[in-house]
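Closing statement on the flavin-adenine dinucleotide sub-project.
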Amino acid sequence: MTKKVLVLGSSFAGLTAAFTLKHDLHDDVDVTVVSPRNLFVFNPSLIWLPFGKRDRDDITFDVAPVLDEHGIDFIHQAATSIDPEAQTVSLADGSNQSYDYLVVATGYYNDLDVVDGFRENTTTITALPAAEESEQAWLKYLENPGDIVIGATQGASCFGAAYEFLFNTSYHLKKNKLKDRVKLTYVTSEPFLGHFGIGGLPNGDKLLGTFLKKEGIDVRLNASVDHFDDGAVTLSDGEQLPYSYSMFIPPFLGQDFLKDVPGLADPKGYIPVRDTYQTNDHDNIYAVGIAAQVTAPWQTPTPVGIPKTGFPTEQMAHVAAVNIASQIRGQVPHETKEFADIPAVCVMDAGNNGVIILADKMLPPRKHGVLIPGPQAHLMKLGFEKYFLWKMKGGHVALP
Ligand SMILES: Cc1cc2nc3c(=O)[nH]c(=O)nc-3n(C[C@H](O)[C@H](O)[C@H](O)COP(=O)(O)OP(=O)(O)OC[C@H]3O[C@@H](n4cnc5c(N)ncnc54)[C@H](O)[C@@H]3O)c2cc1C
């Protein structure tokens, strides 16, 4: 009988796993994607939304017709529970789906309760609707400009987006001829500039320090936020930074329902996995992308998370798909790729400039790591956005 693979999630990890499996096994596998969100969102472009450089139509597409073209079913529902013994997943509409193999690619949600007053008094860009709200706040700000604070709270992991947004804010302040009268401050839980949640790269702190100095940006390192009030953030050392506009990156959490499955997820909702991306207790349940647990090989004075960016997310999903295909063919899963050993490949945009980030491994110890600044990085990000959306929309997930 044809084996059935259920993929929970329709973003970077879920689509990559679903397309890879279907393209490999064709009619020898039934693939169904389950997700409460029918839109694929190219998150890296959310940094541009508040400034009106992109809107939702530019950076999203409907996954249902795209999956259908490739013979993959789509169910527009949230999964609410998993029964590993019965091999079923319950959905929000009360129905059940059975599976032979399950890929959990349910990513993150924003932990907006990390600090009192976050929800009410600051904006964020780490989800599409939130970035749209941040755009409204920016438009209001332009009517009555004042100081700005951009930051990443304790436990945040998406530092690349924080830096990108910081430098894009500085760029747009210049464009609006506000730069000279606005104090721009960066507040971060990182122990040093350019830590990025991956332990930093050679000369990264110096390079970012130079960037910040050139742009006249103040910085608070190793910072922990105590609370947000209307128009001010208070740090845990008591310092208060007033603002007329702010954007903070919160920590991410895995989906809560995963914690109800005995032994599956950690207290943050992330799923510990083997190098094959199989879960520890179940050979037929995989977890990939942000949903997979990754542990930091260091401790920082203020907690910082590890960014599970797009490239490693796709790599994890490929490994899982190859291994499921092996299992369906009656073989032992053999593909492995530890998160720490996946190369780091990222482009950090700064408005009309940027930095290309390359390293042989996501986490130290590394042999090579380099930051290449210059306007080519901005052009690269523009090109990458178009390329990636084309790639995902066409299901060309075998391409880099
Ligand atoms: C602002 C921002 C900027 C970024 N910039 C970059 C960048 O420049 N470069 C880079 O490489 N990476 C970047 N990233 C990281 C990148 O977005 C992530 O690596 C990627 O989103 C991870 O994909 P994922 O599929 O694991 O999880 P997610 O993108 O979180 O997707 C999770 C999926 O699961 C679905 N889901 C949720 N709950 C359920 C449920 N109960 N049942 C079924 N499905 C569910 C969701 O609807 C979604 O489809 C950025 C992220 C953000 C937020």
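DSSP finds nine helices and 22 strands in the chain. With this model delivered, the sub-project is considered complete and its resources will be redirected to Aim 3.
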